[in-house]
Design a protein that fits this description.
mainly beta; Jelly Rolls; 2 domains; eight-stranded antiparallel sheet; 5% helix
Length: 262
């Protein structure tokens, strides 16, 4: 799981710098505004607009593929990709806004969540160019939108999502006590996020709309993008987080649990 920060990125945003956590759930991608160079009949590019990872896009060949999103004029500053097979030797991903490269060709090392952060812009077209594949590229989820930097950083006591492993396994042992191996039955990652001293207006206008949405969608989450660029997850919230008035001046705190792709 990795994050790619454009060299042109301005390290300032709502609430501070990129050492603050980033949630990316705003998404302009729909089945009607996205096209690709190719796609299998039963795995068309429109599948990536669904936040569920069970349905995927798969190209019909390993040749260079260009995914094109026609925007609606909204601001965007990130591209998120989840459940993919882009971690192929020699494969690179390039992102262009209106034909201009904003994220140069990058190799991919992980298979679950990728996050590209750029400056805020309003391009009319966004291109994701995949070259050098040895097998047909596949993507489960694609988000493009405007990220939400959280108002406070995360300090001690936090488990990064990539280390919050939750596995159910079956260990095989023979009748004479010999170890035969381990079968992984299910596997997800999880962690808890604790936010303190949030200003009341910021919480109500920026974060609470995500928690109260019905249905909620998953998001891409990076807890400290500039320092731990590989610790990114495609995650969803468990339960119903409830804020608490923390101080007499109205500042609020809130804790919640993420579960995500392992």
């Amino acid at each position: 799981m990795s994050i790619f920060i454009s060299s042109a990125l301005v390290l300032s945003s709502q609430g501070g710098v990129l050492d603050a956590p980033v949630m990316c759930f705003d998404n302009i991608v729909t089945p009607n505004n996205i096209t690709s160079t190719s796609g299998l009949i039963d795995r068309p590019i429109g599948n990536v607009a669904n936040p569920a990872t069970a349905w995927v896009w798969e190209a019909s060949s390993a040749a260079t593929q260009t995914i094109t999103i026609t925007t609606d004029g909204r601001e965007v500053d990130y591209v998120g990709i989840a459940r993919h097979n882009l971690n192929q030797i020699g494969l690179t991903v390039t992102i262009k806004y209106n034909g201009v490269t904003v994220a140069p060709a990058q190799a991919v090392s992980d298979t679950q969540a990728l996050l590209f952060l750029q400056n805020i812009a309003t391009p009319t077209t966004i291109e994701i160019i995949i070259t050098g594949a040895t097998v047909a590229p596949r993507i489960g989820v694609l988000y493009v939108g405007k990220s939400l930097p959280l108002q406070r950083g995360i300090g001690v006591g936090h488990t990064p999502i990539t280390y919050g492993r939750n596995r159910k396994t079956i260990n095989g042992v023979s009748e004479n006590g010999q170890y035969l191996g381990e079968i992984v039955v299910s596997q997800v990652n999880s962690n808890q996020v604790s936010m303190q001293n949030l200003t009341p207006d910021w919480y109500r206008s920026m974060l609470d709309p995500y928690f109260k949405a019905s249905p909620r969608v998953p998001c891409f989450f990076a807890w400290k993008p500039s320092k731990y660029a590989s610790e990114v997850g495609y995650v969803w919230v468990e339960g119903d987080p409830q804020p608490v008035n923390q101080r007499s001046n109205g500042m609020m705190s809130i804790d919640w649990t993420f579960r995500g792709l392992a």
